[in-house]
Amino acid sequence: MAAAVERERPDRVFFLGDNLRDGQALSGRYPHIPMDVLRGNCDWEPGPDELLVEVEGVRFLLVHGHLQRAKSGLDGLLAAGRQAGADMVCFGHTHRGLNLPAGDGPWLFNPGTAGGVRARPGYGVVEVEAGKLNAWLK
């Protein structure tokens, strides 16, 4: 995660759960970068399960994905995103990258797993410019 932050120099970081302490440590290492840190299904420490964040007029629903049953399909994520009025739902849980632009629902984006847990290591980059979204898996 630190290597991705060093490489990309982001304006903000979304940590989407599991190993909450890693997200908190990353936040402590880069105190000048706003970080939204969620807990996942493997975290027992207190912390948010979901956040709604607005960046330059774009609404992001941040979830880990286990409560929306992401491993069973995308319907729960789409429903949660619609209910929140989100433009993009960012989630983890499956450890597999997904970059699915909005059709009739919010854009679904899973950056994958920075630690390479049961999948190749990777991360995602989301760009907001003039209220428009673009996203890449790296």
> Strand order across the biggest sheet?
3-4-5-7-6
General shape: globular
Uncertain parts: none
What is the succession of H and E elements? HEHEEEHEEEEE
Mean pLDDT: 93
Main sheet overview: 5 strands, mixed
Rg value: 14 Å
In helices, the fraction of residues equals 10-25%
Textual characterization of the structure:
By secondary structure, the protein is α/β, with parallel strands linked by helices. 20% of the residues lie in helices and 29% in strands. It is built from 3 helices and 9 strands, in the order H-E-H-E-E-E-H-E-E-E-E-E. The protein has helices spanning 2-8, 20-29, 75-84; strands at 13-15, 35-37, 50-55, 58-63, 88-90, 98-100, 107-110, 124-129, 132-137. The strands form 3 sheets. The protein has a 5-stranded mixed beta sheet with strand order 3-4-5-7-6, with helices on one face. The protein has a two-stranded parallel ribbon with strand order 1-2. A two-stranded antiparallel ribbon has the order 8-9. A hairpin with a 6-residue loop joins strand 6 (98-100) and strand 7. The longest helix is centred in the N-terminal third of the chain and has 10 residues, at 20-29.
Features:
single chain, 138 residues, alpha/beta, 5-stranded mixed sheet, two-stranded parallel sheet, 3 helices, globular
List the helices and strands and how they pair.
Layout: H1 2-8, E1 13-15, H2 20-29, E2 35-37, E3 50-55, E4 58-63, H3 75-84, E5 88-90, E6 98-100, E7 107-110, E8 124-129, E9 132-137
Parallel strand pairs: 1-2, 4-5, 5-7
Antiparallel strand pairs: 3-4, 6-7, 8-9
